[in-house]
Batch of 2 targets.
Target 1
Amino acid sequence: MQVVAFSLPCPRREIFSVSAGTGRLLYVFCGVPICMTRTKKPNRRSLSAKAQGITADKRSRRYQAILNALQESGSIAVEDLSERLHVSVVTIRRDLDELEQQGLLNRTHGGAVSGHPLFYEPFKNDRSFMEQVKRLADEKRRIGRAAAAMIQPGETIAITPGTTTAEIIRGLPLNFNITVVTNTVNIAMELSKRKDVNVFVTGGHLRGDWFSLVGATAVQALNNLLIHKVFIGADGLDAEWGASCHSADESELNAALLKRARRRIAVVDHTKFNVVAGWRITDITGIQAIVTDTGASDEMIAPFEAKGIQLIRV
């Protein structure tokens, strides 16, 4: 170890020695060595990175809160969000602009509304389509949000066609890095801008009434998949007959998804209870949980609870 020594003009012969290798300061006072370590200055680059991480985390939480508020009501105002989240209106406007660029909402004067991609535009003059979209819209948003809250980071989930199931993807948490398996074109398109979501589309023959892909090709595409949770819509849900729909092709595809899922969840509004449609998807033992709205009475859900099925009303 190289040592540089020097003397100070002091009657007590104090001597300082500095180690060139370690930077330690050796202070000899009246023949007694005292070792002192130089204090390191804070790393400004490290502190800056930490601050940026905290800022990004706060921003991510704001984004999620904005999307949650949007799904609750379908529209949000800048002033209300500013008050609710305790940030400036400038910050909220910047957040809304960023979320619009990600395709998660549409900006309006003074706020934002739920984002509907341009491929829905040709259907705005289709009365039957618009009736399906608007019917029990608030209830479907609540159901979708509750179902989305059941999803865990890193999971593979499956979503079947329908207006209620479509609300699930609009309530998906940010940065969960999940995989979505679907036979539904509109769901795949709505998720196309989500960089944190992997989308697997089955392929198959397109049925135009609700963008669904069906047929042997769609079923075969599921052969090697393991699905953590499947969320199915249904035209009818009966405690004896089970879940059912009006299409033979869709019932086959939905049944195949159920067989490959660890947890099987039906998402239906209250008007679907005690209804039997033409084609059975599964008997009631194939359903483990049902998410519905508060319009479902105790009498309506009692037969399902008696069979050990979890009921969630929102």
Note: The radius of gyration is 30 Å.
Target 2
Amino acid sequence: MVLASAPTYVTTREALKVLDPQTLTPLRFLGSAAVLGIFLLLRRQRLQLRWRDAPRMGLAALLGYAGYGLLLNMGQETVPAGTTSLLLNLSPVFAFVLGYVVLRERTTGMGYLGMGVAVVGVAVITLGDGIGGVGGFNASALYIVAAALLLAVFLIVQQPLFKRLGAAEVAFWGSLVGGLATLPTANPLAGAAGAGDLAGAGPAFWAALVVLIVVSTALAYGFWNVSLAGTSVAAGGSLLYVVPVFSLLLGWLLLAEVPSAAAMVGGAIALTGVVLLNRAAKTYIPTVELEAAR
């Protein structure tokens, strides 16, 4: 899952050079739905979704595919790939806040400390001066933070579905519904910097698009669902912690995006906070999952 997810932010940045965020989002997820649909057909696997699970599946698709994907693309128009992956690791912080506010759950002092440290890290990333490369204050980073919030809610909403649906089928429905939901926003004639002619796009764009759809969406969501189905939201979400290492490296090697000092320092601070939250997660995450499963 980690290796499949790491190229997401690099390939998205490359694809956004040709397509605008509103067009890339449905293209990504509808392409993923086609790949997963072929996979299910080849395996002769019948779809198990029933009407009682349809509302939850629809909500999960709107949160973790349509909403998350659109916000991610909007933010990545200017936010570097590595910084994006660091900001998305805020999702455990939002899971903590949801448990605290909505379910009135409490945690240890370590949990509160972790939340505070993570917030400081994000502030450093978004308010940094950009010393050492790309970075500095970037309002688009708020789109990424919002995407992290949707990701936290999505994981909680989606988890009960694995009791009756397979990992690949959940990814298929999520991709299909998420792609269809964002299709009305697409404008294939309006790409980045006015360049929307797909016929004139270079090989780098097409390679990035294929990797984004096949590897970083179909495979990544599928593998992540396999992990989530066999464990908890907290444990499955912890897999995200390793992704920034690969994303920063790929962004540097493929896009020449040298992380700024603010991104590196803020990212380290934020990850430290998330790790502290994860260690305290046993005091609140199980309760969230039990409530969501009712």
Note: The chain has a mean pLDDT of 77.
